[in-house]
């Protein structure tokens, strides 16, 4: 995936903003069939990498991922863990 190339640290084409753009294109165009792109978008929003830091948007992408993945999916477990982290951070004053 093109987004992965732009997201690879140390790569000659490393460009977080471009990676963010392409992950969003994939996640929004595949109607829920791109859970890895959704998880990466959530991480980028949480960390402010390639985009502004936005914990609400991170949660939105994680909820979308959870709605579309199987209960026993590894990506789902990662999303659940990340959602807990984001929610804890969001609650901090």
SSE order in H/E notation? HHHHH
Radius of gyration: 13 Å
Number of strands: 0
- The CATH class is Mainly Alpha
How would you describe what is shown here?
- The protein has 93 residues and is mainly α.
- The protein has a single domain, classed as Serine Threonine Protein Phosphatase 5, Tetratricopeptide repeat, CATH 1.25.40.
- It has 5 helices and no strands.
- The chain has helices at residues 2-7, 16-29, 35-47, 55-68, 74-91.
- Helix 2 (16-29) crosses helix 3 and helix 4 packs antiparallel against helix 5.
- The model has no long low-confidence stretch (mean pLDDT 92).
Keywords summarizing the entry:
70% helix, Serine Threonine Protein Phosphatase 5, Tetratricopeptide repeat, mainly alpha, 5 helices, 93 residues
Brief summary:
With 93 residues, the protein is mainly alpha-helical. It has one domain (2-91): Serine Threonine Protein Phosphatase 5, Tetratricopeptide repeat.
Could you give the topology of this structure?
Elements (H helix, E strand, L loop, with lengths): L1 H6 L8 H14 L5 H13 L7 H14 L5 H18 L2
Helix pairs in contact: 2-3, 3-4, 3-5, 4-5
């Amino acid at each position: 995936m093109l987004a992965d190339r732009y997201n690879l640290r140390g790569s000659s084409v490393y460009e977080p903003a471009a990676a963010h753009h392409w992950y969003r294109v994939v996640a929004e165009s595949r109607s829920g069939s791109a859970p890895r792109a959704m998880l990466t978008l959530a991480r980028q929003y949480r960390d402010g990498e390639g985009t502004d830091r936005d914990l609400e948007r991170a949660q939105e992408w994680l909820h979308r991922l959870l709605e579309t993945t199987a209960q026993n999916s590894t990506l789902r477990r990662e999303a659940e863990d990340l959602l807990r982290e984001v929610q804890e951070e969001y609650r901090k004053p």
